[in-house]
Design a protein that fits this description.
eight-stranded mixed beta sheet, about 20% strand, about 375 residues, about 40% helix, six-stranded parallel beta sheet, Rossmann fold, alpha/beta, 14 helices
């Protein structure tokens, strides 16, 4: 079996790219030929990189930015040259450039469409791209979501449920105790530490997470890792609500710092409010460390499927700071419940969200078609 993953960018800078790269590594590690074709980030040169005996990474240069997307015309030429070498092309959506390349490639083999997310905000792009998206949906032998909920609810896939399946995202984490973990535990000694991680953008709902601190006593601390365009606005919100002693924006975090906060925190919160949050890899990273999760019930999203209410954590309504605070208090004031959710979080991670489980399910789908 020979497989080509087609997706966005290298070096990796987002969740979709990490999934396709991890699939390439996992499948090639089992002796399956699995290459990857992607566009470069703006500063990375064109390259052919041999990853191992069974995996090669083809990077083509990004040359044009139009309609809020990056275009790499050389991807079309490259795919036309190599497409016939593969039994399966596994294309990651949304990626207009990858879709265009496949459309123009003349490829006649099997196609897996990995549906990570609908195109939601880029209305102008969707208007141009929609005919190609419709072609790709029809062309695909199978459409795989990251959760059963998202692909069942997507308005673009309603007529194609007969060929829909899902491959839950899986990650491996570093369980070695970070040298920073003890420092953090000492810093937040006798405090209930709530950790959140992500870009400081609207759909993450951080204003509600910050406001939730108004309903918590002084034994709680909320820390939010990540950078983004709303940094100043959120800092002002903290000051205006006199929450500087309870809420802290951590800014950009190194990998070691992220691991340390996962290890040191008492629970993880995902406060997102829009379907743009389709899965949230940060949830499963926290679950790997046995942390209970408080997340939101985002309509048509897979977030609440990942964090199962009452099993791995608690889910609450979106845009509701009081509900977030209540969930924090419920979990962190009840030792028996905390232990149940902590164990359930770890169990659910092991059952669904390890990298091995992701590769296993992907391979099942390949064999199916």
């Amino acid at each position: 079996m020979k497989v080509l993953q087609i997706g966005k960018f290298y070096p990796i800078r987002g969740g979709v790219e990490k999934v396709e790269y991890d699939l390439m590594i996992g499948l090639s590690g089992r002796g399956i030929r699995c290459d990857m074709l992607c566009a470069s980030t703006e500063d990375h040169p064109e390259a052919t990189i041999k990853i191992n005996e069974f995996a090669t990474l083809f990077v083509v240069p990004t040359q044009i930015k139009a309609a809020a997307t990056m275009l790499a015309p050389k991807m079309v030429l490259k795919l036309r040259r190599i497409a016939r070498n593969y039994d399966i092309i596994h294309i990651h959506h949304p990626d207009p450039m990858a879709t265009l390349a496949l459309f123009l490639s003349g490829y006649k083999g099997k196609v897996i469409l990995h549906w990570h997310s609908d195109i939601l905000k880029q209305k102008a792009l969707l208007k141009i791209y929609k005919p190609f998206q419709s072609w790709l949906i029809k062309r695909a032998n199978l459409i795989a979501g990251t959760s059963p909920v998202y692909v069942q609810e997507s308005p673009f896939l309603q007529q194609w449920q007969s060929k829909v399946d899902y491959i839950p995202i899986g990650v491996d984490v570093d369980y070695n105790q970070s040298t920073l973990t003890k420092t953090l535990k000492d810093e937040y000694l006798n405090k209930k530490l709530i950790f959140s991680l992500g870009r400081l953008v609207e759909y993450k709902g951080y204003e509600y997470l910050i406001k939730s601190a108004k309903y918590l006593d002084d034994s709680y601390r909320i820390v939010i890792g990540g950078k983004g365009p709303l940094k100043e606005e959120l800092e002002l919100l903290i000051i205006e609500n006199n929450l500087a002693e309870k809420v802290k924006l951590l800014g950009f975090m190194s990998d070691e710092e992220v691991i340390a906060y996962y290890q040191a925190c008492d629970l993880f919160c995902l406060s997102s409010i829009l379907k743009t949050e389709a899965f949230a890899i940060v949830q499963i990273e926290a679950m790997a460390y046995s942390k209970p999760i408080v997340s939101t019930k985002i309509p048509e999203s897979g977030v609440s499927w990942v964090n199962l209410n009452g099993e791995s954590g608690i889910t609450v309504d979106i845009c509701n700071e009081k509900a977030l605070a209540s969930a924090f208090h419920t979990i962190l004031s009840d030792e028996i419940l905390y232990k149940k959710l902590s164990n359930g979080s770890r169990k659910r991670y092991l059952e669904f969200f390890t990298q091995q489980k992701m590769v296993d399910k992907c391979l099942q789908i390949y064999n199916k078609i």
